[in-house]
Amino acid sequence: MKICITSSGENLNSDIDPRFGRCNFFIFYDTDTKQYEAVENSWKEASGGAGIQAAQFVIQKGVKKVFTGRVGANAEMVLRKAGIEIVEASGKVDDIIKKY
């Protein structure tokens, strides 16, 4: 299964970023292969619609769960419509990874 964790940095020791649409990085982790990819959030400085654009990007990556502090209403609607589970999280990215 592929999961996404919003992150303040590009490694697994980074803090979970509490903002979905304006997080610094997305960490995509494959629970089967134990591999991860860090992708800088291109929409973090967008004047509007950052959450929706970020949600569409995450959907394209094929994730099943998103771990973050908070998701705005519009992004939440897009993610849920795609069948992605949203899990409220805080702490370190590695805290989530260790559970998988």
TrEMBL record:
What SUPFAM superfamilies does the record tag this protein with?
A: Nitrogenase accessory factor-like (SSF53146)
Which parts pass through the membrane?
A: none
Q: Which InterPro entries does the UniProt entry name for this protein?
A: Di-Nase_FeMo-co_biosynth, DiNase_FeMo-co_biosyn_sf, MTH1175_dom
The record's Pfam families line, in alphabetical order, gives: Nitro_FeMo-Co
Q: Which residues belong to any copy of the Dinitrogenase iron-molybdenum cofactor biosynthesis domain?
A: 13-100
> Can you name this protein?
Conserved protein
Q: Which organism is it from?
A: Thermodesulfovibrio yellowstonii (strain ATCC 51303 / DSM 11347 / YP87)
